Amino acid sequence: MIEVHDLNKTFKKVVKEKGLAGSFKSLFNPQTVDFEAVKNLTFNVPKGQVFGFIGANGAGKSTTIKMLTGILTPTSGKCTINGFNPQKDRKKYVQEIGVVFGQRTQLWWDLPLQETYSVLKEVYQVPDKEFRTRMGFLNEILDLNDFINDPVRTLSLGQRMRADIAASLLHRPKVLFLDEPTIGLDVSVKDKIRKAITAINQEEKTTILLTTHDLKDIELLCQRIYLIDHGEKIFDGSIEELKKQYGKIHEVVFKLENKNDSSILDYQKKFSNIDTAVAEDTIHVYFDATKVPLPNIIKYTLDRVPIVDVAVKDPDVEDIVRRFIRREIGNDSEKV
């Protein structure tokens, strides 16, 4: 459904020298440098897949989405969505996609929400019967009825986001681009949106490309993760593959009978590739399970101090992605 080959986007950045003289110089004789926002991205997304497109701020996610939706033109490379070129086939192409940018709305600010949908019905030329059926479905999965007649400007952030998602789905798009759809929302609204995304994907086989900083979205929604950094791919695979490849760092938590006993334990001296954190009567030990066996850590601890409780935690997606973003994976795979 989505095919991307060697996609690149380079921007010209003006380099300004210091002071007033530098300002005049950049005004009349600007010096520019090339900035590569996206570098040789290649990936294919099959029909019906929920594709998690993630990375730190400035990694190139939004630039890539703007190229895929036809807002920006690539410097080089090629992308096709459902057989359309987003830039060359723009009029036909936009009828095939839905787009939600978490910090921007496509709704008319002063119109009641129901009238906004009526306008979009005409824009997308949705037949009356199909429109009524579609609105019934969207009302059900996104719970719009309580505010369907309210002006858009009176809606809360959570209501507006649900309304925006409904607007993007009104014409039954084959591909849905969601850029930070749960940003700034409370837990209950996030849960509704996640359930709606899952329902749309499962019932209509809609292909979904999702960018998010909420790592719970990734774990609950995405069948595949594509992680980029500085415009380049650093991981492409399932959550299970991510855990298998990079989930080596485990955590064991010891609750001490006497909090002063923490000074007796010196894990760094006894083992290599171990890090610890002490909080009152609790010690958190982080270790690479491929290099330090868990039984050795437990035995070392029990031989020296009395323990009230012990818990072992496997690495989760949130921890792995955070380490990616902090550049602890890839640049320095040995770091904890």
Record keyword descriptors for this entry:
single chain; 336 residues; alpha/beta; Rossmann fold; Alpha-Beta Plaits; six-stranded mixed β-sheet; four-stranded antiparallel β-sheet; globular; ABC_transporter_ATP-binding; P-loop_NTPase; ATP-binding; nucleotide-binding
Give a description of the structure.
- The chain is α/β, with parallel strands linked by helices.
- The chain has 2 domains: 2-243, 3-Layer(aba) Sandwich (Rossmann fold); 248-314, Alpha-Beta Plaits.
- The chain contains 12 helices and 13 strands.
- It has helices at 19-28, 61-68, 90-93, 113-123, 128-142, 157-169, 187-204, 215-221, 239-246, 267-270, 294-302, 317-325, and strands at residues 2-15, 31-45, 50-54, 76-81, 97-101, 175-179, 207-211, 224-229, 232-237, 249-256, 274-279, 282-288, 307-313.
- A 6-stranded mixed sheet has the order 5-6-7-3-8-9, with helices on both faces.
- Helix 5 packs antiparallel against helix 6.
Q: Low-confidence parts lasting 5 or more residues at pLDDT below 50?
A: 331-336
* Whole-number total of structural domains: 2
The residue-averaged pLDDT reads 85
Element string (H = helix, E = strand): EHEEHEHEHHHEHEHEEHEHEEHEH
Q: Biggest sheet, in brief?
A: 6 strands, mixed
Task: Characterize the overall form.
Answer: globular
Broad CATH class of the largest domain: Alpha Beta
* Class derived from helix and strand content: alpha/beta
The number of strands is: 13
